[in-house]
Amino acid sequence: MAYTGLSEFITDLERNQEIYRIKTFTDPVLEIAEIADRVSKSGGKALLFENNGTDFPVLINAFGSENRMAMAISRKNLEDAGLEIVSLFEKITESRENLFKKLSSLPDIIKISGILPSRTRRKGLCQQIIKKDPDLSILPVLKCWPHDGGRFVTLPMVHTMHPETGKTNVGMYRMQILNKNTTAMHWQRHKTGASHFEAWKNTGKLMPVSVALGGDPVYTYAATAPLPENIDEYILAGFLRRKRVRLVKCITNDIYVPYDADIIIEGYVDPSEELVKEGPFGDHTGVYSLTDWYPQFHVTCITYSGNAVYPATIVGIPPMEDAWLARATEKIFLAPVKLALQPEVEDFHMPDAGIAHNLVIVKIKKTYPGQGKKVISSLLGAGQMMFTKYLIVVSGNIDIRNYRELMMNIFANTDFRQDLLFSSGPLDVLDHSSDTFCLGGKLGIDGTIKMESEVIFKSQSVKAVTDDEYFQKHNPGDQRNFNLCEDLGVAVVGVDQSENKSAVELTKEWFSKVDFKETLNLILAVDNNIDLNDLFTVAWQVLGNSDPKRDIEYISDNTILVDGTIKAFRKGGFSRRWPNVVCSSEETIRNTDQKWDSLGIGPLISSPSLKYSHLSYAGNDEVIV
After folding, report:
1. 326 and 440 belong to one structural domain
2. What is the residue range of 344's domain?
């Protein structure tokens, strides 16, 4: 169903027993985020904090399960939206043999025209209350992590417009509160908002910007969706909710926003104004995104509905609420990827440990030699896929969400001498591992089933390692930790860089000499404070801390070592500041433990930060120095 404001969505969540109402006072500074982190990582319900020191309840973890994500996009399950898009695309694009078949597609075309956003001259529900002397302190804006630079609006739908074409965009760019009527606007250099900002610089005029909060939750999803530039996000929202989005003109600028949003923050950005320092911010990478320079957003008016709810999210060490947004994208955008880019694509998946842009798995229907490499080359230049650091393409009857099965198939069908495609290109601005900001190495792995003409080298069978004692007996001097995934031929090694900054080099040298190297496909080196049995954390660290061109080395023809250690500790240091892991403070954890029983949300859930606090360095500061 289409929701009119978050209050309707909350009512539906209650009907489905998917939400807790919390009446105990809970502070937007650190407390709400700590509670949400515990509930989110444990697969719990949405949370509505009704007592937070403001007039606005805080809704958080609203997207944090498959059922709630499906509800948010007006579907019974995530697959429904994808299947509907496939059906619609096929009906519109299939060849027509006669006039009757052409006419039969008209209802589907009419449906598309019926979901285009409309504009009304009437005031919207979002404008029932108008504050022309704006004060952002009326909103329960969260501070999520102890070393955040301040309070951040974390689910803003930022509306901008190109000054020449009039094309609009809705993007999700965090906003740090600077004072009662000014924020920083974190639109990254690759985003459409930043492109519009550059265009406004040439006009000598103020750039109008309006921020919507809440409304139908499908609006929030649409603002995060990887749509091509100049495609209206409210077309996607209208399709998903099966009802066009009504837009109303803002009070103090010419931007149009959803009629039924909960809160609207209107204002402008002055392109001639000096940038301001923004951050740090505990980000979805699981580490702090460090301070940088961004434009200022000046608030001219705040409007809201009579029953407005303030939406928020918290990001940090995965998996968290944003993982469910990524899963929705996998389902919804499979059809467009197939029909517009790569017709051979059967499925794609962004594992949680890869935080969306560090690892993408693609499954194709393979019909000719070299097809896997062709898909790699194409996708690494397609839209937001250009930020992908590791891209793996597979084929055949394989479940790409079963990671053990996936890895076994990759190793069985990949010859590391010919099937690894190294390149360099743009990276997400949040990537901290490359030597150069926004630019670094990439790796495409052709793990498809090979045809006869593709086999250049005779494959080597990898024998399973079965003797842990052999590893311990031949242990290199600086190594004390091993985890052997015996059936896969994978070794995870913990290295102590504090004792010897050449520890990684010693590991490479050691593995290249010992006589069991042909029993291994993959060696992963991580810092020795990682639990090597926790393969999710190992994968998150390796993917986040490595640059494929710099940090992958051949140990033998079919054995590679990936250095996933923290580069700030390597010999000679690192060219950039290295961010620290995001964790709550001991005080926040203790206070939350003491308050837990009064919240009415079930038995105590231990803080996830207790599991990860040992990964922090330098007194848990935001940066490793």
Report:
1. yes
2. 322-454
